[in-house]
Amino acid sequence: xxxxxxxxxxxxxxxxxxxxxxxxxxxxxxxxxxxxxxxxxxxxxxxxxxxxxxxxxxxxxxxxxxxxxxxxxxxxxxxxxxxxxxxxxxxxxxxxxxxxxxxxxxxxxxxxxxxxxxxxxxxxxxxxxxxxxxxxxxxxxxxxxxxxxxxxxxxxxxxxxxxxxxxxxxxxxxxxxxxxxxxxxxxxxxxxxxxxxxxxxxxxxxxxxxxxxxxxxxxxxxxxxxxxxxxxxxxxxxxxxxxxxxxxxxxxxxxxxxxxxxxxxxxxxxxxxxxxxxxxxxxxxxxxxxxxxxxxxxxxxxxxxxxxxxxxxxxxxxxxxxxxxxxxxxxxxxxxxxxxxxxxxxxxxxxxxxxxxxxxxxxxxxxxxxxxxxxxxxxxxxxxxxxxxxxxxxxxxxxxxxxxxxxxxxxxxxxxxxxxxxxxxxxxxxxxxxxxxxxxxxxxxxxxxxxxxxxxxxxx
Length: 460
What we know:
It is a single chain. This protein is of the alpha/beta class. It has three domains: about 1-60, CATH 2.40.50.140; about 90-120 and about 295-460, Rossmann fold (3-Layer(aba) Sandwich), CATH 3.40.50.150; about 125-285, CATH 2.40.50.1070. The protein is about 25% helix and about 35% strand. The strands form four sheets. An eight-stranded mixed β-sheet has the order 7-22-23-21-20-17-18-19, with helices on both faces. Strands 8, 9, 10, 11, 12, 13 and 14 form a seven-stranded mixed β-sheet that branches. The radius of gyration is 23 Å and the shape is globular. The mean pLDDT is about 95.
């Protein structure tokens, strides 16, 4: 039996938690809002703190509201769906402040108010679903058969089970209609979901992408090739939904639970679709990473331009450039952009996207940032500004060290994880840079995720 404690939630911290206190010990409390008194169970006891999860709310926050999703909070995709949106935005703003002060050790930078998202639902242009033979049922679904055809999201704490989803409020209505129709056709087809325990079955993952123009790309990830079976379903779907521009079947015959594979086969339509950001065209293949909130991405990129204060003569280094979205977006404001990215396919896409838009002042290279930093390859050219947009883990210390050694006068740091942003900012400040201002941007309503842009300048 797990220990139960009565506790009042403290300030919000990254990860959808509150930093609280119980009998003189710090508590990382999940599923509670600041100020709420809850009955929580102790999940783990660490040397310096306790991890706990709220089981029952004894005194509810005035900012709580009824959730409009039958799968919340079981699904886990949304952590704040029963919280007023303005309060969600406040929490994210406070989390960014906390990471800068507590982790980054910076107390005197300019904190700008968070840029809110006007569209609270239906904003995701890409969603990934999981097939499973084992169904995880919610409280409302108890008594239903556990085995069978399930398509939805990974169940919490069960890598082998999925929550059967009819629709997701975060993706557009069109995508939901296509998802539901495809789900029913696959269910009726007799094709068997994959079992990650026994490593049997066929259907593994489903990825749906919608462009700004309303075109749909479907990527069905399977264990093996069964072209005729997949084509039958694809033909039926394309006849019912003519906006499906691409139907791809990716083969993942390995044991790894990933939506990538060793081969992608075009079943119907074209291998790529075209999406847009601020008037620029981007060619996207089935595995291309692209910002998932098209409504907010231009606000994010415009703020990068504002922080950079380009005068047209700059040579810019774009680290972790992906398919070149930031490089190409700022290209008309600068003399030249040099982008580096680890993934070969992304660099190829970036080069094609430059050609697609007739942009000639952007060049892109493949390389591991840490290796390039250690070997001194990142700064063979002189740069006026660095824009860095690393993955969730932030920058490797060797990369930070290379940035400090470069002496580049200005760094614009774009982060999807305020805690690693704070960690890297501390290193950059110790190396002679000063964090001048920070802009949080809400790209993901109803979740705890937040984008952060920071401007750092070299001290004289």
